[in-house]
Amino acid sequence: MISYARLFKRPLLFRSFTGLTVSEFDSIYIGIESKYNEHERRRRLSNRKKRQRDVGAGRPFKLKVKERFLMLLIYYRLYITFILSGFLFDLDQSNVCSRDLSILEPLVKECIPLPKKLYKRTRRARTIDEVEENFPGFKAFIDATEQEIPRPTNKNKSKKRTTTFYSGKKKKHTIKTQYMVNNEGLILHKTGHKSGRKHDYDIYKHNHPLTPVQVENVFDLGYFGVQNDFPTVKSVLPFRKKKNSILSNEERTYNRKHSQLSIIVEHAICRIKKFGIMGVKFRNRLRKYDNASDIVSGLLNFRVMQFNRMSL
Fold first, then answer.
1. Tell me, what's the pLDDT at 181?
2. CA 114 to chain centre
3. Residues near 44 by Cβ (< 8 Å), separated by ≥ 6?
4. In the predicted model, what is the mean pLDDT of residues 196-221?
């Protein structure tokens, strides 16, 4: 059986299994522990109309809060099945999803810096110092990524249902999420999941994050046309090769520098995909996808912010 006490003695395994160091885990858990009782009280009161028993009655949780948080991280990082999670933590597989994970997820989201929390802060930035604090170097990097999902079932015999999420680029059924990160790799904005059929630029046109006028928004060629459609946005794109022509040496040199600059958002997406729940075929129901991507983004933001504090 896996437990915090056993993994605590193996720091490398702890980080490999959870995506966090022991000290990072403990820092987040302090916030979870301090808010847990109030979170449970609110949860029980919100379900009072559905309850047939008094608030507080019912079967208690078998695992302590720390073990449940550990199980959630291991599930997100390794994306093992509920059957295996139950075996490793000595639980029934039905309890893993319906009780231990789903009930704890909203509390975890309260204790980590989610992109929507950071985005509210960037929207309030007014002075140059505030803008530079949120966007070091006055730059933002925007890109979208795809993740495979199972082929949708064709229950109503409609061809449209099975092709809605089909990505011609990946030749699979996928969903897309767009991210905006700053120079330090902090995820400042994240869209909800969109159909894999949608083009990256189409997602941006309908879900573009607002940035201060001083900030340069760095895109790849998938966002070609943003300069015409959004003239007030400072857009930085590489040169596009035209038909029957070649790029000049200066344009190729510029494109190389642009690639070296925009690699920041690629690294951020790579860190996201190291969590199995975001990196392999998403097996859960799609209504749970945004919740999972929020938590993974918040965990990575927490790590970046911890690293920045240590560097000061």
1. 97
2. 8
3. 51, 55, 56
4. 93
Amino acid, single-letter form, for residue 257: K
Write down the pLDDT at residue 170: 83
**Residue 134 CA from chain centroid, whole number:** 19
Selected residue with higher pLDDT from 160 and 38: 38
Instruction: Give yes or no for a contact between 205 and 130, defined as CB atoms under 8 angstroms apart.
Output: no
**pTM of this prediction?**
0.91
DSSP 195-231: ETTS-HHHHHHHHPPP--TTPEEE--GGGTTHHHH-T
117: tokens are 């929390």
Length of the chain: 312
Residue, of 171 and 59, whose pLDDT is higher:
171
Burial string for 202-230 (b: 16+ CB within 10 Å, else e) reads: ebbeeebbebbeebbbbbbeebeebeeee
Angle at 49 between CA 47 and CA 52, to 5 degrees: 90
**Amino acid found at 54:** D
Name residues whose C-beta falls within 8 Å of residue 65's C-beta, 6 or more positions apart in sequence. Answer: 29, 32, 33, 36, 104
Identify which of 66, 65, 49, 48 has the alpha carbon closest to the alpha carbon of residue 8: 66
Cα 68 from chain centre: 20
Considering only residues 310 and 79, tell me which one the structure prediction assigns the higher pLDDT. 79
Query: Hey, what are 2's tokens?
Result: 């896996």
